[in-house]
Specification:
The protein has about 170 residues and is an all-alpha fold. It contains two helices and no strands.
């Protein structure tokens, strides 16, 4: 058993040496990796700094554009509200004007209808009360004239009468 213990200790010593060697290898690799990471970090910082500053500038500009857009949106909302109120006002004025125009047209129609009726009534009255008596008077005067001409014995030449009728016609 002593021999086996001796072999076991040697075996453990070999495994410890392998483990130490592995750990040293990992340490070397980690140091190289750390150096490489430092180089990569430096490169990234050199390359990324301008990009980050450009992104920051773009964000600042975007914030300004957003502020301007908000102001424009507020102005547009105000203008839209004003236009809406003005359109409603104009619509109410148009409605009032239309209503008043309808009333005035109705009144004008009544006045014109009344005037036409009065003109027709007046025309009928003139014809009945003025023209009819004048025509009757004209016939009476014509008859009296014919009677006097007959009584006094004056006869007109039928040719003269035809000539006189033509002159009256013209």
């Amino acid at each position: 058993m002593e021999d086996s213990l001796f072999y076991l200790v040697i075996l453990v010593a070999i495994f410890i040496c392998i483990q130490v060697a592995t750990m040293l290898g990992i340490l070397v690799i980690l140091r190289k990796l750390g150096g490489n990471l430092n180089c990569i970090q430096t490169l990234v910082e050199q390359e990324a700094k301008p990009a980050v500053s450009e992104v920051r500038e773009a964000i600042v500009e975007a914030k300004e554009v957003i502020k301007i857009a908000r102001g424009a949106a507020e102005n547009l909302t105000g203008v839209t509200d004003t236009v809406r109120l003005q359109v409603e006002h104009v619509n109410s004025i148009i409605q009032e004007t239309t209503d008043k125009a309808k009333v005035q047209i109705s009144r004008a129609d009544e006045v014109i209808t009344g005037a036409i009726e009065k003109i027709e009534t007046t025309s009928t009255n003139i014809q009945q009360n003025v023209l009819t008596p004048i025509q009757e008077l004209s016939k009476v005067i014509q008859n009296i004239s014919s009677g006097l001409n007959l009584f006094l014995g004056r006869r007109k030449n039928p040719v003269d009468k035809a000539h006189q009728d033509e002159e009256m016609f013209i």
